[in-house]
Amino acid sequence: MAEEVTRVMVAVNESSIKGYPHPSISSKGAFDWTINKIVRDNVSAFNLLFLHVQVPDEDGFDDMDSIFASPDDFKNMNQRDRIRGVHLLEYFINRCHEIGVVCQAWIMHGDPKEVICHEVKRLRPDLLVVGSRGLGPFQKVFVGTVSEFCWKHAECPVISIKRKPDETPQDPVDD
Amino acid sequence: MAEEVTRVMVAVNESSIKGYPHPSISSKGAFDWTINKIVRDNVSAFNLLFLHVQVPDEDGFDDMDSIFASPDDFKNMNQRDRIRGVHLLEYFINRCHEIGVVCQAWIMHGDPKEVICHEVKRLRPDLLVVGSRGLGPFQKVFVGTVSEFCWKHAECPVISIKRKPDETPQDPVDD
């Protein structure tokens, strides 16, 4: 049967709810699903690749508190974003380490859907897993969905894992 | 980790090219991918559920040869369809048996995309795998795609496995 490991790319992002770089509900759901339903106890047969795409404009909702007065302020902001991204990836790497599955993780900047498809092209994983908020058609018009774009354009099979209804926050656009 | 087996539903159909009930190129590709990339050698952790949906009007392209003169002619046709469907499922069941993965298979009638989503609702698999011809947007307008409908409407995660470019027949609508 298959000789090489199955390489699963998981696109992860921060929660829009909490103040600290926790993973979003849908990222966490996508990861848990991948481990529980696909990897299971066959940990040596899979590699996980965690990609976090930071969106410069939307990343820190506490930018409201920022006053930019000098180039250093921007430098500090970039530094803070970097730290938040690293913390996020640390969560997933720690989980993989506990489970015993080999992984790697990295941060990119740009439009998540474009960057994810570009990284799929570059790294050729066997499978891309993305979380989805499971929004209705009306909400999608305004917020767009990364998962739908990736499903259509990524050059590998894509699984989109919808958030469980009981985990949906009060505002379903939050995650 | 996960205690229960992972139940993977695979939607399969006949080839439109050959005269005998061989699986379509994309069904075979979806099955091979599932075994090689997901199940691997962890065969006791997965159950495969093969669903074949027969479309009464499109099923036998050799209906051109059929002359219907009595109710028995329809009965014979139904009987022939049944045999073709059983042969198709036999291929996948034999493959699973060789590999050592538990499976079951059944035939339904109707519009494949609707029936597949209905069966997902009824049986609640962990994952639905469908083959896809990987048609372009222009071709899709005329032939529709089961995979896209299922991805949007099935109440479980869906993977669509695109046919490999080197397996695409002369007419890409064929499969």
Automatic annotation (TrEMBL), chains A, B:
Coiled-coil boundaries: none
InterPro entries: At3g01520-like_plant, Rossmann-like_a/b/a_fold, Universal_stress_UspA, UspA
Residue intervals of the UspA domain: 24-160
Descriptive protein name: UspA domain-containing protein
Source organism, top-level taxon: Eukaryota
One MF term in the entry's GO annotations: AMP binding
Organism per entry: Glycine max
